[in-house]
Specification:
Mean pLDDT: 94
Radius of gyration: 14 Å
Largest sheet: none
Strand content: under 5%
Order of helices and strands: HHHHHH
Oligomer: single chain
Distance between the termini: 37 Å
Shape: globular
Number of strands: 0
């Protein structure tokens, strides 16, 4: 079980950095903020349970949430994954 107190404590520490605070506070939804909090925690502890929780949240994110993650993502393979997810959701949206 994810220790939410530890996630919150880790989040508070990360938000001391202005860049990470902006990333978190400018998130377009509470779901996106929850993901970012878990992402910060995962970057420190890399446990499978947190990774699975992040995957579940990310699957439910809308395009604006994913674009926010993309905007703050470094130049790494994750950026390509996010770009594909954005394109998939935009294509599905167009089919509706």
């Amino acid at each position: 079980m994810i220790n939410r107190n530890e996630v919150r404590k880790n989040l508070e520490e990360m938000l001391e950095n202005p860049f990470w605070a902006e990333y978190y506070h400018k998130a377009p939804s509470a779901r996106c903020q929850e993901f970012i909090g878990l992402e910060f925690y995962y970057s420190e502890y890399e446990d499978d349970e947190t990774g699975a929780a992040m995957d579940a949240i990310e699957d439910e994110m809308d395009v604006s949430d994913l674009r926010h993650l993309f905007r703050y993502c470094g130049n790494n393979p994750r950026k390509g994954v996010l770009a594909r997810k954005i394109a998939e959701k935009e294509n599905r949206k167009g089919d509706e």
